[in-house]
Amino acid sequence: MKLLQITLMSFVLLLASASVHASSLYQELGEKEGIDDLMAAFVLEIAKDDRVIEHFENADIDRFHRMISLHVCELVGGPCTYDGANMIEVHTGMGITRTEFNAIVENLISAMEQQEVPVSAQNQLLDILADFHGEIVGR
């Protein structure tokens, strides 16, 4: 019984720690306003990139900015709710290559540097977003 209580307590502390970690990332990114600004800079970086712009030529840029801001906000523990399509649905038919995916990551890194996002927060966000690689590339 005592071992079960300790195990349960450890699990609860682990969950609380993960939540605090995500929440602190939300704060490091400047909360909702900072994330919106970061994603605006990201969209501008994509717009200047001949390697990937063709995938966004027919996109509703305002909607894209709004949805990616909501998604990132939710992913980093913010109070936002992303209610858009999942990444497989969004990217199916786009045929994004690994090289193009990497170019988009470079665009995000450039945007984070412009917005002076701390390197530790950059790495945390990239780690979270890297999980979507398989849902984006080759669809």
Task: Give the helix/strand layout.
Layout: H1 2-28, H2 31-47, H3 61-75, H4 87-91, H5 98-114, H6 119-130, H7 133-136
Helix pairs in contact: 2-3, 2-5
Number of H/I helices: 7
Regarding quaternary structure, what we see is single chain
Q: Strand pairing plus helix content: what structural class?
A: mainly alpha
Radius of gyration: 17 Å
Residue share in helix: 55-70%
Number of strands: 0
Characterize the main sheet: none
Mean pLDDT: 85
* Backbone shape: globular
Question: How much of the sequence is in beta strands?
Answer: under 5%
Distance between the termini: 49 Å
Low-confidence spans: 3-22
User: What is the string of helix and strand elements?
Assistant: HHHHHHH
Summary keywords:
globular; 7 helices; mainly alpha; 139 residues
Report a brief summary of the structure.
With 139 residues, the protein is mainly α. The chain contains seven helices and no strands.
Structural description of this entry:
The N and C termini lie far apart (about 50 Å). The chain is an all-alpha fold. The protein has helices at about 1-30, 30-45, 60-75, 85-90, 100-115, 120-130, 135. Helix 2 packs across helix 3 (about 60-75) and helix 2 (about 30-45) packs across helix 5 (about 100-115). The radius of gyration is 17 Å and the shape is globular. It has seven helices and no strands.
